[in-house]
Amino acid sequence: HQPDDDSHSQQLMQQGRIVGGYTPAPHSIKYIVSIQKTMGQHFCGGSLVNKYWVLTAAHCNMGVNEMVIVAGDFSLSRYEGTEQFFIPHLLIPHPQYNSITNNNDIMLIKVQYSKRFYLNSYVTTVPLPRQGASLAEGRVCRVSGWGFTSSSGGQIPSSLQTVNLLLVSNTDFSIKPCRLSDSLVLLFQGDSGGPLVCEGRVYGLVSWGKGCADARYPGVYTAVSKFRSWIDNTIFSYYSRYQTPL
């Protein structure tokens, strides 16, 4: 029996974890956003790729009326005065996204018309890799998010967590394991939809994995470089259609 789309999506979103990571300096990772339910519960991460658009995983799609995008956040448990809150205007999952296999697990979120993220010392964008770009084996990358901090689950941490990963394969890292730089046994599974940043660019999105910190089941990341053309075409076709400024 295959799960329906809603239950499968919920299952995937509950898998996000930050295991073996640490708390970075407050607001030092400025491109990450918290994707929350309208009642304020965090469930996915995302990356701010320009002043109007967020990149995340397609399985984070809860419906345009059920989501809030929060930029400039560090602690989920208190209001810091640095947050920017936005209601999505448009959710654009990849047209070939498959909720059963989780192939093409990538989605763009456009904030409401006439709204944009205000870039400042707490909120910045992150560059994208070029189409088809690859990374050399042994490259150290960073994953960040508010996922669980232990393999058994528990409470989502109030503060942002991050961890450095060693890239194992240079062929197709979207389906190969990344390993913790301080432990070559444990595997990391980060916050669903959250960014895997290498060389200052968001090369991966946390997609899925079976269990957590288990060498038998590598975490899977959507390779953003495979979708750069789709990202560019989607954004520019939106502005061509609606004739709104960038």
Cα radius of gyration in angstroms: 17 Å
Query: Strands of the largest sheet, in order across it?
Result: 5-4-1-2-3-7-6
* Poorly predicted runs of 5 or more residues: 1-19, 149-154, 170-190, 210-218
Just name the CATH architecture of the largest domain: Beta Barrel
Instruction: Profile the largest sheet.
Output: 7 strands, antiparallel
Oligomer: single chain
Please indicate the count of domains.
Answer: 2
Beta strand %: 25-35%
SS-based structural class? mainly beta
CATH level-four homologous superfamily name of the largest domain: Trypsin-like serine proteases
Indicate the CATH class of the largest domain: Mainly Beta
Q: Helical stretch count? A: 2
Mean pLDDT: 76
Order of helices and strands: HEEEEEEEEEEEEEEH
Shape: globular
Q: Provide the helix percentage.
A: under 10%
Catalytic activity: Preferential cleavage: Arg-|-Xaa, Lys-|-Xaa
Protein name: trypsin
InterPro entries: Peptidase_S1_PA, Peptidase_S1_PA_chymotrypsin, Peptidase_S1A, Serine_Proteases_S1, Trypsin_dom, TRYPSIN_HIS
Enzyme class: hydrolase
Question: Can you offer a commentary on this structure?
Answer:
With 246 residues, the protein is mainly beta. The chain has 2 domains: 32-125 and 229-241, Thrombin, subunit H; 139-225, Thrombin, subunit H (Beta Barrel). Helices cover 10% and strands 30% of the residues. The strands form 2 sheets. The protein has a 7-stranded antiparallel β-sheet, covered by helices on one side. Strands 11-10-9-8-12-13-14 form a 7-stranded antiparallel β-sheet, with no helix packed on it. Strand 10 (178-180) and strand 11 (183-187) form a beta hairpin. The longest helix has 15 residues, at 228-242. The protein is globular. It starts with a helix and ends with a helix. The model is unreliable at 1-19, 149-154, 170-190 and 210-218 (pLDDT under 50).
